[in-house]
Write a structure and sequence with these properties.
With about 210 residues, the chain is α/β, with parallel strands linked by helices. The chain is built from seven helices and five strands, in the order ββαβααββαααα. It has two domains: about 140 residues, Ribonuclease H-like superfamily/Ribonuclease H (Nucleotidyltransferase, domain 5, 2-Layer Sandwich), CATH 3.30.420.10; about 55 residues, no CATH class.
């Protein structure tokens, strides 16, 4: 069973993000304030749950939470400020929308950029230790998945409905074959170095033929 709180005397918001390692699409972050007495033996790190389990838990989290919110940072902003800062910004945007002002932020990971004057505690693998962070991980993951599944309808070649924009072999092969979409993160290494070199060579040959 994950822990219900870090400090029983403070109103805590668990924060986590999803999509940091993807090649396309936005990064999503969530902030969740749970009651101190909240218990759920099924709630865990979103990566340890099935897709069906995550979607089953989402309405439970939204109903039982004292407050919850989701923040989004799109691919263009990611390219402008880098993915680490985008992850922080997404969490800031989520916390900014909370209807309950937290007294402490529980952050999944080992780094964070302070939000206003609210103290924070970074917790490595926090989504597998605290219920509020696990809840945030589920909201961030499922709302981002919804976005990528919708985007997959417009760009079916990239199989985003299954890889969610992560750098799978099939995703990268589609980039090599069809090029980038308006949703790809251009500052990321979209192809392995050798494939990028081969692709540049093919482009040079085409120009020479013209």
């Amino acid at each position: 069973m994950l822990k219900s709180f870090f400090d029983k005397n403070l109103t805590e918001a668990g924060c986590d993000e999803a999509g940091r390692g993807c090649l396309a699409g936005p990064v999503y972050a969530a902030a969740v304030v749970l009651p101190k007495n909240y218990k759920n033996k099924w709630l865990n790190d979103s990566k340890k749950l099935s897709d069906a389990d995550r979607y089953e838990l989402r309405p439970e989290i939204e109903e039982k939470a004292l407050a919850w919110a989701v923040g989004v940072v799109d691919h263009k902003e990611i390219d402008e400020i880098n993915i680490l800062n985008a992850s922080f910004l997404g969490m800031h945007r989520a916390v900014d929308q909370l209807e309950v002002t937290p007294q402490l932020l529980l952050i999944d990971g080992n780094r964070f950029k302070a939000y206003k004057n609210i103290p924070h505690q970074c917790i490595i693998k926090g989504d597998a230790k605290f219920l509020s962070i696990a809840a945030a991980s589920i909201l961030a993951k499922t709302y981002r998945d919804d976005f990528m599944k919708a985007a997959a309808l417009k760009h079916p070649e990239y199989s985003w409905e299954s890889n969610m924009g992560y750098p799978t072999k099939k995703h990268r092969e589609a980039i090599r074959q069809y090029g980038v979409t308006p949703l790809h993160r251009l500052t990321f290494q979209l192809l392995p170095a050798q494939l990028e070199l081969d692709l540049e060579s093919e482009i040079d040959i085409e120009f020479e033929l013209e």
